[in-house]
Structure formats: C-alpha cells, structure tokens
Amino acid sequence: LKFTYDNMKVSNKMKPEAEWVKEKVEEQNKKEAGKGDAFAKAWVENRANVYEPKFEELFNKEAGENLQGDRTKSSAKYTLIVHTTRTEQGYNIGISKAPASIDFEFIIVETANPSVIKSKGVLLNVPGSSFAGADFDVASRLKECYAKSGKTMGKKLGKACKSK
Asked: Are 59 and 108 within 8 A, CB to CB?
C-alpha cells in the first residue's frame, strides 16, 4: 500500500490543499495564537497516524488471506496506490452536522516498475461520520472515510484474487 495526496483539492470549493491550509491556519491563529499551526501539523500527521492505518486494517480484514496490504512492505509484487484527490472535512456542531467525504483514485502497479499500471479505479464521495454522532473533530470523520474505502477495496480486490 502506498498513499499519495498530490494535487489534492479541499472543500466543496475545490481549493488546492496548500491554499486551503494556509487560509485555515491564518483564520485559526487570529482566534487563538498557535491554534492554526497545530491544525496544520495535525492535518498532515493524521494521515500516517490515523487514516492510513485505518484503511490498512479494514482493507486486510475484508480482503482475506489471499491478499494483504502493508504500508511498510516494499517486496510485494504489486502496490496499491491510494491517491486522495478531494477531501471535504464536514462538520458537527451538535445541533447540525454534515459528514466528511473523500474522493479516491486507486492504481495497482508493479512494485518493481511503477510505470506498469495493472488497474485503475475511483471511489467518489466516500462519506465519513460516526454512528453515535461523537465526531466533533475532523480526524474522526475523515478516519471513517478511509475506513469505508479500505473495506470496499478490500472486498473488491479480495474477491478478484479468489476468482483467479
């Protein structure tokens, strides 16, 4: 498994990620010094610490024993590239909420020669929110998007490997 975020757009306004993060940092730092900087740091760190492990966990749970994804394994014959193309963070303010949603592109390549593409696909508007409604922070909503996409791709690819 390899995760990429190149040229990702953020929000329904489809802003380039760097521009969107810069605006959020300035906005939050005006309200409270350092808050925006902490947001920007967490925005990036949550990828490797929260989202990617959740995708991997559910991908492997659904894929079965014929197929396993591993973010640290570089000796596999094939690599599944999980490319996040758009992220909408959603919100939850208690009396009103909207789920997060993410668009993904999936590319299966030969690990030794990544220019050899074996398959491509997309999942659009993958929703993310907590069933119990306790998803007040962005990370918990986005984590659910990665969980759902991992589960979906694990099922699809696991089934394809069984049929061969």
From this structure: no
The amino acid present at 148, given as its one-letter code, is K
**12: nearest Cα among 103, 130, 148:** 103
**pLDDT tens digits for range 4-38:** 999 999 987 899 999 999 999 999 999 999 999 99
Q: Which bin fits 84, alpha (ψ -120 to 50), beta or left (φ > 0)? A: beta
Which of 107, 106, 90, 93 minimizes the C-alpha distance to 143? 90
Nearest to 128 by CA among 139, 113, 118: 139
Pairing relationship of beta strands 97-98 and 78-88 according to DSSP bridges: unpaired
Model pLDDT, residue 143: 93
**Three-class SS of the chain:** CEEECCCCEECCCCEEHHHHHHHHHHHHHHHCCCHHHHHHHHHHHHHHHHHHHHHHHHHHHHHCCCCCCCCCCCCCCEEEEEEEEEEECCEECCCCEECEEEEEEEEEEECCCCCCEEEEEEEEEEEECCCCCCCCCHHHHHHHHHHHHHHHHHHHHHHHHHCC
Tokens of 54: 């959740």
- Give this prediction's pTM: 0.92
